[in-house]
Design goal:
binds S-adenosylmethionine; 45% helix; 361 residues; alpha/beta; Rossmann fold; two-stranded antiparallel sheet; seven-stranded mixed sheet
Amino acid sequence: MLRMDDSTKGMASNYNSNDDYQAAIAEAGAAQMRQLVADALMDPARLARSNQNSVVLCDYGCATGQNSIKVLGSIAQEVCTIEPDTQVTCIHNDLPTNDWTDFFTALQADGTYLTDSGGAIPMVSARSFFEPSVPTGTVTLGFSGSAAHWLSSQPTVKSPGCCYPPLVAGSAGDELRQMAAADWLRFVTARAADLAPGARMQVQCLATNIDEGGHPQPAGGRLLRGVWAVIDGMVSDGLVAQDAADLYVLAVYPRTTDDFLAPFVDGPVAESFEVLAHDIALVSSPYSVKYQSDKDASAYAKDYTGFVRGFSESSLREHLLHTDALVDEFFERFRVRNEADPTIDAYDDCYEMTLQLRRTA
Ligand SMILES: C[S@@+](CC[C@H](N)C(=O)[O-])C[C@H]1O[C@@H](n2cnc3c(N)ncnc32)[C@H](O)[C@@H]1O
């Protein structure tokens, strides 16, 4: 039986209105991928194949679609410019529990690649990206933005005082690190199955920077310390059980460069990929940038809380809070805390990996 990955059930229903950060990442990534797809079209392994007039683009972790549809649409447009007679298929992948109704609503809005030109065929793949997710060897260009840092399943290790896997100390921290390594190997093994020889893949996701002193700086460390502070307050007020809080982590793991590159150094998929480029960069938080210019603490706290709710609500509801009332209480406390001090949980440590791979022949 296929195991059901359960670290998240998908993004909150308001994700499309609270994704400024992910949208900035996706926009920057799309520019790089237009070049990457041009390279994939000219790859000798593709040119040697007979079905050259078909190009398949796949976005792994598409959520409710706003960014995914724009990114794949712009790459499809690039393919049409280079090869006007080529049939482009855009596959949007996410978990079966993703809000696919919101996705299809977004796809039918004005100005998408479907409603504007109608040239590319949209398809969805409702399967965990830790498994092969499309017919074997069909993808020409794969992409994953702001998604591959999710672990496959909800950890069950005790981590008192901390709800962020890269910050968990001791043997529990080791267990989480091993889980992240195993999941990354599963992710790239599944892509080795999906991608055609000569295909390209770009992964953009949260990362851990190593500073000059050799200290790890995981993306979002301050944000997740704030999440823990709110959980801790709810424990103190008798709203959440201590045992449940001690077991809860947001199942996201920002990896280091070494973690990302490990599967390509040796192991079962080392021969299947060539690493074309990798870079960890600090991305600025649109919420802090706006606050610095308008000093509107109330707007900052509302927007920032909306962003945090977009990606964390499903995890908090499923694995800790369980009721609408407690979920609302949690985010109201987070909002109040950030309005009182707009620097307290600021997302000013957003390290993002951009990794480009070529599927070898
Ligand atoms: C923050 S959203 C990013 C969405 C989109 N790529 C963007 O840039 O706006 C992360 C997405 O990854 C998806 N995801 C997490 N684990 C997944 C898995 N195992 N398989 C497929 N999708 C997954 C979530 O459901 C969510 O929709």
